[in-house]
């Protein structure tokens, strides 16, 4: 028969064993829970240039690995990529063998996936990450600064959002994101589109490649070619699609030349479009043809020019 002391020792051993098992189970579940569901991008230098991957996390596990269009060697890289991505999903790990004959591509893919998985765990290397999303006035681009592994700053690049409405929302949201260390914040009332775009852009900065290439600004240059006037003397109506809807104007032609332009109807954004609507008619009359777009009101400017051309044709 077991003594009381022996029973206590056995109970103690069993208790310690239970703790160890619980710790292992907890550790495994914590590792899985660490990866937040979503799609995360990673980049690494391959044989032909940057190799970018998108890693999908579902239920805390790697559910898919896709490689974006790349410049790796055809016939060699494709089979290696197909084999490696399948192995990573199957093993739930990047600890897989590089494919013989495609070592550089293999290492680049594994490094890129590792970077994506770090993002899924909320771990970022210090630096500035860019992201973009569609706002009310066009693309809204943000730069998110990571310092000591934390969000230290969120800056919005020059944008076309509505002044006075968007500025206050941007100031409030960027401060809140830094304070909470998360893009999961409430939108600002009265600036829903801008708020949602900013939040999405920050998310994209933290989950995407961190690089946004801004399209080169189209330079509107004055051309010496005058409008081709195919109407007789009189007042003629023209229209074109502006930023806020259809823009309608009347063009008066006398002696084969444009003598007056009157904006009849528009739904353009106040404060932004006013300068274009006020200055363009006289400039067009003076040039008798296309003129430079007004800075900050490019869409409205193009609509005015298109409507004038519509009226005289």
Please explain how this structure is put together:
The chain has 7 helices and 9 strands. It is α+β, with helices and mostly antiparallel strands. The chain has 3 domains: 37-120, Sufe protein. Chain: A; 127-207, Sufe protein. Chain: A (Alpha-Beta Complex), CATH 3.90.1010; 234-312, Sufe protein. Chain: A. Strands 1-2-3 form a 3-stranded antiparallel sheet. Strands 4-5-6 form a 3-stranded antiparallel sheet. Helix 2 (77-91) runs parallel beside helix 3 (103-120) and helix 4 packs parallel to helix 5 (192-207). The radius of gyration is 30 Å and the shape is elongated. The model is unreliable at 23-33 and 218-224 (pLDDT under 50).
Along the chain, the helix and strand elements come as HEEEHHEEEHHEEEHH
CATH architecture designation of the largest domain: Alpha-Beta Complex
**Helix and strand composition category:** alpha+beta
DSSP helix fraction: 25-40%
H/I helix tally: 7
Low-confidence region ranges: 23-33, 218-224
Largest sheet: 3 strands, antiparallel
What fraction of the residues are assigned to beta strands by DSSP? 15-25%
Give the overall pLDDT as a whole number. Answer: 86
Q: Count every beta strand, where a strand is a DSSP E run of 2 or more residues.
A: 9
Instruction: Provide the number of structural domains.
Output: 3
At the third CATH level, what is the topology name of the largest domain? Answer: Sufe protein. Chain: A
CATH class of the largest domain: Alpha Beta
The strand order across the widest sheet is: 1-2-3
User: What Rg do the Cα atoms give?
Assistant: 30 Å
- Our measurement of the CA-to-CA distance between the termini, rounded to an integer number of angstroms, reads 111 Å
Task: Indicate the overall shape.
Answer: elongated
